[in-house]
Amino acid sequence: MNENLTNILTDNGEIILDSLIDNEILKEIPILGNSINIIRGIRSIRDNSYLKKVKVFIDNLGELSESEKNKLIEESKKDAKRRVKFGNALFTTIEKSDSLIKIEYLALAFEAFLNNEFPESDLRLLCHTINNSFTDDLIDVIENETPKGNLKFLVGSGLADVQYRKLTFDMDHTEPKYILSDIADILRRIWRKYKK
């Protein structure tokens, strides 16, 4: 990498970070604090890209109330193994995301989790589904009342499920039916409720 660019990123990394994260509450949250610490060591374009993703996440998260902050801190303190699962799900989804819209969906899911709309295990499943979905399919399923794409192709990502029909004597209607998954329904519900 160009040495001047590396110096600019290193010298200005703290300034960029501070301008992005001026909310003291967010700095206190262990999970986001770990991401912030990683960002502090900006050394490459990839890290700068991650910084932009974290900014989108924070911008879409909304303000955290004191009770939401306390819930998040308590969740992350429960035990080391659980904290690793919880933090890694968010960290990995943010880092590996191939589009900013996925980060926006993740922030909305995280906000809904903080409002006790579903358990931590569902948050990890939402992270996994968001991460493994093709962005256009994700937008189609979440934002359209009736998705236009073929649900058959969304089973692998977790956005759709297969419903097998009972076999009949004449073998009519033996093709499976494809429906939106429970996780897709949660994503659709939180998008409608929390979108800004």
Describe this structure in words.
This protein has helices at 3-20, 24-28, 30-40, 45-61, 66-77, 80-96, 100-114, 120-132, 135-143, 182-194, and strands at residues 160-163, 177-180. The chain has one domain. Helix 7 (100-114) packs across helix 10 and helix 8 packs across helix 10. 26% of the residues are buried. Helix content is 66%, strand content 4%. The protein has ten helices and two strands; from the N terminus they run H-H-H-H-H-H-H-H-H-E-E-H. It is mainly alpha-helical and 196 residues long. The two termini are 38 Å apart.
Summarize the structure.
This protein is mainly alpha-helical and 196 residues long. The protein contains ten helices and two strands, in the order αααααααααββα. The chain has one domain.
| Helical content class | 55-70%
Mean of pLDDT: 75
Number of helices: 10
Low-confidence stretches: 1-17
**What would the principal axes of the Cα set say about the shape?**
elongated
Find the structural class using helix and strand composition: mainly alpha
Number of strand elements: 2
Rg result:
20 Å
What is the succession of H and E elements?
HHHHHHHHHEEH
Main sheet properties: 2 strands, antiparallel
Q: Report strand order across the widest sheet.
A: 1-2
Question: Could you outline the blueprint of secondary structure elements for this entry?
Answer:
Layout: H1 3-20, H2 24-28, H3 30-40, H4 45-61, H5 66-77, H6 80-96, H7 100-114, H8 120-132, H9 135-143, E1 160-163, E2 177-180, H10 182-194
Antiparallel strand pairs: 1-2
